[in-house]
Amino acid sequence: MRILAYIIKRVLAAIPVLIGVSVLTFIISHAIPGDPARIIVGPKASKEAVETIRREHGLDRPLPVQYVRYMKGLVQGDLGQSIRNHRPVTKDLADFFPATLELTLASLVLCLAVGIPLGILAAVRRNRLADHVARVFSVIGVSTPVFWLGLMLLLLFYRNLGWLPGSGRVDITSSPPAAVTGLYVIDAVLARDWALLREVLSHLILPAFCLSYVYLAVITRIVRSSMIAVLGQDYITTAKANGLSTARVIFKHAFKNSLIPTVTIAGLSLGELLGGAILTETIFAWPGMGKYVVDSINSLDFPAIMGFTLLASTAYVVINLAVDVLYAFLNPRIRY
Amino acid sequence: MSAPLLDIRDLSVSFRTYQGRAHVLDRACLTVNRGEVMGLVGETGCGKSVLSRAVLRIIPSPPGSIDGGEILFEGRDLLTLPRTDMRRLRGERISMIFQEPMNSLNPVFTVGNQMREVVRAHRKASRSEATDACLEMLAAVRLPEPGSVLRAYPHELSGGMRQRVMIAMALICNPSLLLADEPTTALDVTVQGQILAILAELAERQGLSILFVTHDMGVVAQLCNRVAVMYAGQVVEVADVQSIFARPAHPYTRGLIASIPGRSSGGELYAIPGSVPNPIDPPPGCRFHDRCLKATGDCRNVAPEMIRVVPDHSVACHLFNQDGLS
Amino acid sequence: MAAHPIFRELKLTLRILSHNPSAVIGGAVIAAMVLLAVAAPLVAPYDPVKLSLGERLMPPGAAHFFGTDELGRDIFSRVIYGARISLSIGLLVITVAGVTGALIGATSGYFGGKIDNAIMRLMDVILSFPSLILALALAAAMGPSLVNAILATAFVMIPKFARLVRGEALVVREMPYVAASRVAGAGHGFIIRRHILPNCLNSAIVLATLTLGDAILIAASLSFIGLGAQPPTPEWGAMIASGRKFLMDQWWYATFPGLFILATVIGFNIFGDALRDVLDPRIRR
Amino acid sequence: MSGELLRVENLCKAFPLGGGFLEGKKRWLKAVDRVSLHLEKGETLGLVGESGSGKSTVGNLILRLLDADSGSVRFEGVDVTRLKGAELTRARARMQVVFQDPQSSLDPRMTVGNIVSLPLKILGLAKGGELRERAAASLAEVGLGPECLDRYPHEFSGGQRQRIGLARALVADPAFVVMDEPTSALDVSVQAQILNLMGDLQARRGHAYLFISHDLTVVRHVSRRIAVMYLGAIVETAPTEKLFETPGHPYTRALLASVPVPDPAQRRNLARLTGDVPSPVDLPPGCRFHPRCPEAMPCCASVEPPRVELSPGHMAVCHLHNQRNTP
Amino acid sequence: ADKDTLVVAVSSDIHTLDPGVSSDNYDWRQIYPCYDRLVKYKVENGVGLTEVEPMAAESWAVSEDGLKWTFKIRKGIAFDDGTPLNAEAVRFSLDRTMAIGKGPADNISAIASMTALDEYTLEITLKNPYGPFLQTLATDGASIVNPKVAAKAVGDDKAQAFLAENVDGSGPFRIAEWTRGQRCVLEAKENYWGDKPKLKKVIIRFMSESADRRMALEQGDVDIAENILIDQIPALEKNKDVVVNRFPSQMVEYVYVNCQNEKLKNPAVRQALSYAVDYKGIIDHVLQGNGVQMRGPIPDGMWGHRKDVFQYTLDAAKAKELLKSAGAENLELTLIYSERRATWEQIALVMQANLADIGVKLNLELMANPTLRDKIDKGDFELCLGAWSPDFADPYMFMNFWFDSAKQGLPGNRSFYTNEKVDELVRKAETLSDVEERKKLYSEAQDIIMQDAPYIFLYQIQTIVPLRANVQGYVFNPMLESMYNFESISKK
Ligand SMILES: Nc1ncnc2c1ncn2[C@@H]1O[C@H](COP(=O)(O)OP(=O)(O)OP(=O)(O)O)[C@@H](O)[C@H]1O
Ligand SMILES: Nc1ncnc2c1ncn2[C@@H]1O[C@H](COP(=O)(O)OP(=O)(O)OP(=O)(O)O)[C@@H](O)[C@H]1O
Ligand SMILES: [Mg+2]
Ligand SMILES: [Mg+2]
Ligand code: NI
Fold it and tell me: Which of B80, D154, D189, E262 has a CA that sits 20 to 30 A from residue C103's CA?
């Protein structure tokens, strides 16, 4: 019950943040010089056509009026129509968001699966060779330009070795699975199409690796440092003094404690992964939000930009909420 | 006399620091007999904790390293024991409790989880057998409602309860030696009284030997049979408790006893001049000489050996010769 | 007169650092980059912006160590001059973000309560934006220029510093020495200036070294999407951006600036990690 | 004596616990509950009690580090609980504090010289070179040489740091110093040095001390009068020797009995009380000590005990005396 | 992929499938094969021409004054639901496009009214005589839509919502699947009235990276890869499985010189700039030879192009002299450009170096496309890089759009050029339908324009289309940039 009240409270607290996000997005996106009406009608159209469109979309109104109108729609779950293609923005988001989400989640899994053991190794063998190797390996990730890595991976595994398929979520000639969740892995499982599942997974490997490598260092570093901090705690000494094996001390006692800061960072990273997927998506022709939003900015598609940022921010808020709840499960000291 | 339970001989421990190597223990000697409570007193940083941790070989390394000496426990040298044997010994034959009951229990697991784990690390026991053992032990340290304590997380317990849990956990495998590193320093006097009473009772009932580390002379006086006084990484005096208070031999011990307030009210307290030497660059000879009012030339150059002044009373000071005369 | 205490501190820090192998390696890389940047005119064999269309896309060789780009410019020279730009970008971004973030965080943490709540919600707003998108939109709105790219990058980094410093400030404001100053009658400004900020400095510096690499990368991504340094300025990110078109056949074009970014970022990261260890007072004592 | 310096009356302070919207009723932690005490010029009053009993909070309220909920603190005739701005600054110039932890009570980023001269600087009592001179003088008084001025706190031992803390407290020549467990982090031998030094300084400069400690033996050594706190309230006040000879409150008696006497000849059962100090959030009705009191009577559970003067200057808050006095 | 499936790797997703809305070649790629139009571009010996021939219209006649056009519509064409394609359907479609009033409407804005004389005869009346009229009927915006879509309208959106995601035409293909961001699948119609498509399926795959498209082409995962960066072509040409085709296109790239700007008002200064650019260097190196220098505003391949018109070439000395005579030494200018085309940055840099040679300091400013467009529209720039391709095959697309002072700003006259004589000439040419007459007027205008140098005419590019070697029957039409004749392509 307490936790429910806590969640409600957190959700309510998120509202001003989201309003802030919407105001900021609105201001910034409208500060980009350019005329969306002109973009709709095309460059060669006459001035009159531009004016008509501007009126039609309410772009001639003062900004605050436009904002209020937008927010009114938002309250009713209407994110407006995309200026570019006249589709409800919600539909566009529903089309593109699952791809990004799938990629992001896959990267997160990869990131944690590699980053946590690496961080533990580095902490346990602190200042020894393994530590240095683990840290350099992970830090190379942060500092490698994503597209360089992405292209090299494609060149190597697709063109030269032929081990993995090229870009995209499925093979060029395959149809995507029937959309249920939009996450192809899950949809393929639901459809019991195992061949397709294999295909989908093999398409995920390279982009997920490429994206996760960037955040690997962050996870490794935080696991390492929190692990080092935890290993210096009295209860670790106690556990050792009580004759528990090293493995138990590290993987049970130290690990759960070091997870506490790790989930926080992992949550934040997931947020960043969501936003950071743009370049990866471009290279791997991944039909996600990245390209959509860049195109939106390029065509001053305000409703689309707003829709995207609000969705991303909401995702961020939701993730953080989830992290906080998880945090409470991990850390019994948390009281609400 | 039978061989002592624990016999620490010439133990030296050092730590690597940024300023240089700190020689934190320098040929320290100490014995603990079966069934006795041995007090270990000394100022902050003199190496009491390091000494007791060295017995369990849980000194963090790096930066610490045991440079020499032997630690004989029931006749076996712990320093040369294989790792797995050492691990088995910990918690089962020798266990330890620490100063901070706050931090000594893992905050993210329930008390029961941690206690059962200790039981099952040392003997084959089903979950319910382990639980029974825990309940019994918690009752023995006079915790009301052991069942709910077992289900509680450490932060839900008060300091005194936590320390009792620690004691229960340390004694659950029925060890023969308990290393207690200032277990009551963080507690209030009224609670400290309870804990000391429990320890005394358990020591008596289970024939337990305790190495009790403290800086509180009052606690020593109330609880211990024998006392070892440490100064700057060395044990400078060992005696039975009466002798230490009544006839302190080492000038440092004398200063220590004299500076306790409240033995008589009002007036100036005796204060030992100067401060503790730096373990990185300790003075030659007797480590106390530059604070000692009676220091002689010998004290500055020659490190004094431990000599027996009277039976059961040894001291490392040049003021005493083999015959125990001052 | 004895050396000023600050210098003694610095000397001790340096001495401790010099015993730390990763600090030495990281420091050496950083020093080498700074040196290259400063001595660029001496080291670079060619004019970094001079076109020579006849020598387009030459592979690395004796005449051009790192080859040439699509306009025949010497990549080696450009990379070296690029160090100037990229390092300054990193430094400027970190300074702007660090100082602003630290001030915001210190104020927020020190006062706590409603002020803290309001400020932190604002930081949440910024944080909850995908940073690249925010920087992109900002840079697009302000117009593409190096200065704007720096400001945009700094803007998205402010919350990182603010959060960190706030966390520290929450701890520091409870310290007895702050209470002692208050007993002596110190006002809020004084306490923030003399106690809170200096005591948050260590972690802010560590974060700064750790994020300097990030800053270079974000600024590079902005250049990469055309919003950062304007041509013909040899900035690493921009070079990589141009070079990516040639990556499949002329690997050297994007790879060399990429390697320099890699080295610099790794250098700062390793150094920052070491600095974190070293500045930890528990270890220092 | 030369007259009253400080009079605290019915001081109350409660801290809100969590609470707020969606979390049910706000709960209050009564840290200090109707505390009254007074202090003569040049005198030392000991304030003892177990941890969490509100000793530090009393000190902080007097120093205006916290604002009192109600009650008054008259310092040199002025009620400091209501002061603001310049007047507050003026009053502050006369009050100082020394904290328990020598490590955290000195700003690690400042040199000792700056730390010690800080009060002068803030209060505008000195400028430029004079700051340094007076800091050096103050350090000399606590037995530290001028070479310390340019060093950092972490270069000193615990005892030395506590001396620096004393030097800072005394540099502006206050009339009154709150000593919040100044020696509880120190070893006995170092504690002796500090206690002696404090006694010295008091004799020379005539400050009054409010000496907060949980260690009865130390308090006994330094104070002329002692107040005993339990769960936010003062349960007994008495001249030192009176308190030790004829403790009036069962809690004081238990406390005295729990102190391990540093004399192996006087061994005794130290477990006089059971359980820990309960939390001051939900205070028991009646006498706040009754759940742990070995001498509790039925009325203790419901009726608040009265304040009884046992002898001049010896006050206890307990039903036992009430009954004895009014049969 | 299978023999009867063609896979095309393209760089950008579709925005809308509505022929009445889209003014984007990338959309037209999918829309065009799904609809029929009254006329289509001729193909001769596998070469696409700019002249038109009958498609849904069997024949047509035009009145003496050029105002009334009568189209006879072919019988037996039907939409998927059986609705016949008749005069009413054509009227409905053209009317719809005009009523929506977006980009495509501009091309057919000459229409004043339409009447169906009988079921298969349509009479179109123009507002004024309009030379290029017939050509405009071959544009995507003139696609004939099933009039039944009116039933799908939501509010008064004229079925825009429906047609944005669906097609309803009588063309040889229909859309079988469109997964946003991934691919669009076209399916051939068995019962198409014209020549049967040889392919069963066309998969259009969206891949935004050139390198990605190239790799997929080399691996044989795709059959055609468009928009491969010029610098990747030489390596691609070495691959035996790939054929790289080059076609002269109608796409030109040029620099807008803002004639209203104080510094650039003087034609001598503009001439100097035109003399300063190293055209050959740009074409040889930046374009790797995939282009030819422009000669006058009208590109080669379009009627009205003059091989003999005056042409600027690199002459730094002359440029300096001109600047001196104009008193414009120490000139500092800013060139703005966007990332729309990969070569622009290089060209900007070359121009920077070129202008430096004549003592002009050129600052470069890269900006986002919407910002750039805004600046162009407002005339808030000095120099700007641009590209232009005609929507229909008529010099009108160049001469009237670029130089008519009424079209200043983004619509066409992006150098804000004003010359009364030129205005008069091009406006006259617009209303005539006689080609020879118009040629003469445009020719005269060109001479004046070249002297006024309102643009720096850079080059006309070659379209490069790399195909797998087994793809046959591909025809390039310069008017159908990025569009494909899927109906006649086959795979060996
Ligand atoms: N991990 C370590 N790294 C470096 N030095 C250490 C470490 N642990 C202990 N030391 C040093 O060893 C010396 C002895 O420490 P120890 O903890 O044994 O003192 P102690 O007598 O237990 O003091 P206290 O009464 O404060 O507990 C100290 O000088 C301390 O600084
Ligand atoms: N700022 C605060 N907010 C909430 N509760 C507080 C605050 N300060 C003190 N308390 C609570 O008030 C009670 C009294 O605290 P105080 O610090 O005065 O005790 P103390 O007697 O000084 O204890 P100690 O001996 O441990 O220093 C404690 O229960 C404490 O938790
Ligand atoms: Mg210790
Ligand atoms: Mg306190
Ligand atoms: Ni104590």
Answer: D154
